Amino acid sequence: DRVIQVYEGLIYMDFAAEASHEVCGLTCSRYEPLEVSLLPPLYLAYRTGASEPTEIVHSDLRARYQQGDAALHAAMRKFAELTEQARTAILDGDGPRLGELIDANYDLRRSICRIAPWQAEMVEQARAAGATAKFAGSGGAIIGTYADEAGYRHLQEKLAEIGCLVIKPG
Fold first, then answer.
1. DSSP secondary-structure letter at 139?
2. How many helices (H) and strands (E) does the chain have?
3. Average pLDDT for 1-5
4. Which residues are bridge partners to 44 per DSSP?
5. Cβ atoms 41, 146 nearer than 8 A
6. Could you report the per-residue pLDDT of 31-68, keeping only the tens digit for each?
7. Is 140 helix (H, G, I), strand (E, B) or coil?
8. Residue 103: predicted pLDDT
9. How far apart are CA 124 and CA 151, in angstroms?
């Protein structure tokens, strides 16, 4: 979260040990700005009046990782692979592939984290509307892609049914 706040825009982040370096006594990773114009149409959706602190979702992940949880270690490697593939899809202008990767990201997250039912419902509604969906963070907002303006309107309608607002970033 802090990297995006500093760099703003669309940033590819490589947290691999070999990509890390020290700046002013702090360990930093490789950050690569990407051109926002390469992205397919995106939406951001959130349920009004509902959020969940990031600590709720992340509270046990570090401990599980340090204890050698095999499923969590495998998931973290897979997240890195998905990120590499998403970077390639963005640079290639392959919106449909990026959408598949967005969905895969959520599915992987769901396999290692407890997802609140109201948050899962948001993703399910978005997907039922023909959009892709994943969490935009840990507080309950989702982000994804949609095909066209008719798809965006349908997405707005489906998510409004469960008290969500949908906006176009930027």
1. S
2. 7, 8
3. 80
4. 143, 167
5. yes
6. 999 999 999 999 999 988 665 555 555 668 888 989 99
7. coil
8. 98
9. 15
Are 133 and 142 within 8 A, CB to CB? Answer: yes
Cα-Cα end-to-end distance for the chain: 18
Contacts 24+ apart (CB under 8 A), 60-65: 61/112, 61/113
Give tens-digit pLDDT for 91-110.
999 999 999 999 999 999 99
Neighbouring residues of 31: CB distance < 8 A, sequence distance ≥ 6: 3, 7, 11, 12, 13, 14
**CA-CA distance, 86 to 79, in Å (whole number)?**
10
Sheet strands (E) in 16-119: 21-23, 26-28, 30-34, 42-47
Tokens at residue 47, please?
Answer: 């349920």
Is 148 among the catalytic positions?
Answer: no
User: How many Å apart are CA 51 and CA 139, to the nearest integer?
Assistant: 5
* Beta-carbon-side half-sphere exposure of residue 13 (alpha carbons within 13 Å): 15
Rounded to an integer, what distance in angstroms lies between the CA atom of residue 30 and that of residue 115? 30
Instruction: Give the whole-angstrom CA distance, residue 48 versus residue 163.
Output: 7
Measured distance CA(14)–CA(29) in Å, rounded: 6
Catalytically annotated residue among 1, 103, 107, 148: 1
Per the CB < 8 A criterion, the answer to whether 73 and 50 are in contact is no
